[in-house]
Amino acid sequence: MGPVKALSVMQPWTWLLANRHKPIENRDWRCHYRGRVLLHAGKKVDRDAMRELRAGFHPVTGERLEIEFPDEFETGGIVGEAVVVDCVDRSDSSWFVGKFGIVMRDAKPLPFRPCKGALGFFVPEFAPSPQTAREAGR
Predict the structure, then answer these.
(1) pLDDT tens, position by position, for the chain (138 residues)?
(2) Residue 64 per-residue DSSP state
(3) Taking the chain, what is the end-to-end CA distance rounded to the nearest angstrom?
(4) CA Rg, the chain, in Å?
């Protein structure tokens, strides 16, 4: 088994995925990967989606949403994990708007861990913690 891969997604979409509000991630490319994936919150924020969500509306359908959001959305690191179970070109999900949808299950938030993102699925590189760096220098 190789290293765990990550997928970078703009906030607030990453938070919605990690907290099981959004079960599908839209892409314009087909995904062949299946298995556990870390959810990386990119540094860019989708301001239009954020505005709609903060106003209480689904950013895709415009319907009312009853979701309590954090005051701040973390960016530039891992914020959750999920299991990629499928890639579809059709879905009944109100969140599906892409050419393809990466279907995720068993999502959960994780403590924030900073790291750089990348396009597509990638293996995240984490900076060593100060304690690990001190131990390595012994």
Answers:
(1) 566 899 999 999 999 999 999 999 999 999 999 999 999 999 999 999 999 999 999 999 999 998 888 888 999 999 999 999 999 999 999 999 989 999 999 999 999 999 999 999 999 987 665 554 455 455
(2) B
(3) 31
(4) 16
Which among 49, 105, 48, 118 has a CA at the least distance from the CA of 77? 118
Q: Return the SS3 of 130.
A: helix
Written as one letter, the residue type at 64 is R
Residues in Cβ contact with 114 at an 8 Å cutoff, skipping those fewer than 6 apart? 76, 77, 126, 127
Indicate if the alpha-carbon torsion angle 107, 109, 110, 114 is positive or negative.
positive
- Domains of the chain, first to last: 5-136 (2.30.130.30)
Closest CA to 114 of 84, 82, 75, 85: 75
The single residue listed with the structure tokens 């990466």 is 102
Q: Is the pTM value of this prediction over 0.90?
A: no
Q: How far apart are CA 127 and CA 115, in angstroms?
A: 7
